[in-house]
Amino acid sequence: MNMKWNLESLFEGGSSSPRFSAFVQETESLVAILLKELQSVNHAASDDQLSEWTDRLQQALARLREADAFVSCLTSQQMSDKRAVSLTERIQSLSAKYKQAQDLYEAKLAEVPEEQWTNWSGDAARSSVLFPLGERREAAKEKLPPELESVASELAVDGYHGWGEHYNTIVSRISIPWQDGESVASLSVGQAANKLDDAKAEVRDLMATKWEEAWSEQADLCADTLNRLAGFRLKLYGMRGWNDPLREPLKMNRMSGATLNAMWTAVAEGVEPLTKYLSLKAGRFGKTQLAWHDVDAPIASSQAKISYDEAAKIITEAFEQFSPDMAKLARKAFDDNWIEAEDRPGKRPGGFCTSFPISEQSRIFMTYSGTPGNVSTLAHELGHAYHGALVDGLPPFAQEYAMNVAETASTFAEALVNDALLRRASSNEEKLALLDDRLQRAVAFFMNIRSRFLFETRFYERRAAGIVEAEELSKLMVEAQQEAFGNALSSWHPHFWASKLHFYLTDVPFYNFPYTFGYLFSTGLVAVAEREGESFRSKYDRLLKDTGVMTVEQLASHHLGVKLDEPEFWRDAVSRVVADVETFASLCAQ
What we know:
Helices cover 67% and strands 4% of the residues. By secondary structure, the chain is mainly α. It has a domain at 14-158: Oligopeptidase f, N-terminal domain (Butyryl-CoA Dehydrogenase, subunit A, domain 3, Up-down Bundle), CATH 1.20.140.70. A hairpin with a 4-residue loop joins β4 (352-356) and β5 (361-365). It is globular. The two termini are 39 Å apart. 47% of the residues are buried. Keywords: Coiled coil, Hydrolase, Metal-binding, Metalloprotease, Protease, Zinc. Residues 84-111 form a coiled coil.
């Protein structure tokens, strides 16, 4: 199978595409006209005006998401594509203009008298977007006046978002020398990261040293960038009268602080059994404790590589067992070249899935090197693509689901693949390796992600008092890792705060807890799927379709009959996850 994605079917010509340039120009014109009109209206909006603005804003939103997705693909496949980088700035400027129009529109919604709002919003034409419209109306009441929000959006392009793009420039400069036999190569961070979980301990140990050194050399630049990003957020929050840096990410994820606290309480209770797993794994490696870079290493002394074609077969067959529609979507992604998986220099690290709402397609980005973890990542991103396919055709406002429920679909897809592999395992060693991979995921979501949340929470507390230097950032990072991992490791990753892209994303603050939410919520969904069998397929699809029009608490109550702001649901999910530890222990003893 082709391991390179096809972007030409979207906009031919890459970053020099005339059609894409025209598409962006048309979108800029649409947004500019809408913005000018909204700025000129200084009276109460009529029903017809509200309807027209709603339709045009949704049209602009779909076009903006299409453009942003394409540019993100261009910059990820080749970080040195300067034309693509300039397009990023253009799209960010367009996004700022759109946000200005959106802020004015939402302010108009907030001004609508209750009687008029009830009549207008209750019209059948708006039934599918009633929830996000109400959300926007309430949000406007909590922000600055539209003209000030507009200024903040304009300044953010070269300020806030500019610092985010600066981080990508820092990453593109990093080149890690690596000798493989007699040949010496310079690895990008994406290629180097794959060696951190190599089957050979000497490879992991050497790369861990080189990795830490590489990020240490860029620490001052990364610290400067991280401080400016957090400083911008805190200043803007302060101007709005918000005193909690978690307020925005909770709103964005449509969840309450009570739900977040209930989840972390249950997760903390699951740390002890996972430390037992880490200790057992260390024993398999002949160590008392694992090092940071040993956690994701395969437990098998030698592990056959899984070809890309084989991975595609494993995933589609696992999806087929649950839902033929999921399998159909996966086959389409492979056959139509939606996936960029080639292992080559110049690519950015990490993986993602991005949706093109107008084309009704997705594109998946990763660097595939044949590990079981790569197969899981591929299944994860295909889960995102399936979620995107389910909301295709809905009004754009109803497609805007939050990150935490987005991660539900992806981790559910991972679970399907991992469960299917475990059922097919023919030997204890194979079962042990598969359980190790599953428990690695549990460690990632319970411990690694929690350490990021603890770090970011404490960083914001310190940042409110002034600049936090690189050395202190590393200290905060290690303290968070030690707490989250229960001191179960022999070494830590002080510069993780520098090496992790998620800390530098400007679209979503606190890009961490939604992952754990999705992982545990999907664990609960797997349990329901096992109980209900085939009848759960349609319930699952309906739940995903509703992710843009309900809070997470409403989703769980309506579709599953459970309460998320109480610990019981989360404790049940945690218990299900850590049950693998005892199975792992019994296999280790054989």
